[in-house]
């Protein structure tokens, strides 16, 4: 797919703060898909690690039986973040207007972006900075399904099927330049019956 500036435009270009001002204390994928996300986190995140939940909400889908050293959330809604029991600390930040992450180099042992990558208008810049704040070889687990707020996702996302979206995310990581071992996984629990769940996993260079 040939990406142009129009590829990153959205139908609703009003400030994201307005769209996310109302807390949404609901899940955006069904329970089997959530379980698939949790299993990926169990497989990839070190159990004694410091984890970053990027574009976080009121639930992080981390394994309930694992006590990580520290979990930091960054998201758009203060009420959602404050209600998240998995987070030790959190910050409200709009990555589309402030893409620089407020963390030192090599701060985290793993990071997750759950059903949110499609809302970034400059994903390459953000993924490059995310690679900076992860320790070398630390995993990034990006998951998504077929649900979204269609008015707020980038135009390129709406033009692609699920494999195409995986390829798009992998392209973002490649263009960022500081990721390796990029994998595309299909963890859809019950194809055709429940929400699909796919992932792109990479490691910080």
CATH class: Alpha Beta
Strand content: 15-25%
Quote the distance from N terminus to C terminus.
26 Å
Helix content, binned percent:
25-40%
CA-based gyration radius: 16 Å
- In total, the number of domains comes to 1
Structural class: alpha/beta
Average pLDDT, rounded to a whole number, is 96
Give the overall form: globular
Helices and strands in order:
Blueprint lengths: L15 H4 L11 H14 L5 E7 L13 E6 L2 H5 L6 E4 L17 E5 L8 H11 L5 E6 L10 H4 L3 H15 L2 E8 L11 E7 L1
Parallel strand pairs: 1-2, 1-4, 2-3, 4-5
Antiparallel strand pairs: 5-7, 6-7
Question: Can you describe what's shown?
Answer:
The protein has six helices and seven strands; from the N terminus they run ααββαββαβααββ. By secondary structure, it is an alpha/beta fold. It has one domain: Rossmann fold (3-Layer(aba) Sandwich), CATH 3.40.50.150. A seven-stranded mixed β-sheet has the order 3-2-1-4-5-7-6, sandwiched between helices. Strand 2, helix 3 and strand 3 (89-92) form a beta-alpha-beta unit. Helix 4 (123-133) crosses helix 6 (162-176). The longest helix has 15 residues, at 162-176. The protein is globular, with a radius of gyration of 16 Å.
Summarize the structure.
This protein has helices at residues 16-19, 31-44, 78-82, 123-133, 155-158, 162-176, and strands at residues 50-56, 70-75, 89-92, 110-114, 139-144, 179-186, 198-204.
Give me some keywords for this one.
Rossmann fold, 205 residues, alpha/beta, 6 helices, 7-stranded mixed sheet
